[in-house]
Design goal:
The N and C termini lie far apart (40 Å). The chain is built from four helices and two strands. It is α+β, with helices and mostly antiparallel strands. β1 and β2 form a beta hairpin.
Length: 97
């Protein structure tokens, strides 16, 4: 797995937050998601990738509403995601028996 670190700035309201993301932290986040556990992994992703000087401010923001945590984490993951073209080939209508 690559050690490429990506710096991402998200604007939340009128405040900018700076994150440093790498493949390992994204993999850990995805692997920790379950049907019944989404807020804690999202919170961990954000707190583990925010630059140190903004940590307290982000923590206060995340404590206001759990959906805030999900929205910010979703934006971070979306921005980190590579843009690749994927297409699905249509299957033949006949079944091979």
């Amino acid at each position: 797995m690559s050690n490429d670190r990506t710096e991402i700035t998200l604007e939340v309201g009128e405040k900018e937050f700076e994150f440093v993301v790498d493949p390992a932290v994204i993999s850990k986040y995805i692997n920790s998601l379950t049907q019944t556990n989404k807020i804690a992994p999202a919170n961990n992703l954000l707190m583990n990738t925010i630059v140190q000087k903004q940590r307290a401010e982000l923590k206060d923001l995340l404590g206001s509403n759990p959906l805030t945590t999900l929205q910010i984490a979703g934006a971070l993951v979306e921005e980190y995601s590579p843009t690749i073209e994927i297409s699905v080939k249509k299957r033949s209508a006949t079944l091979n028996a």
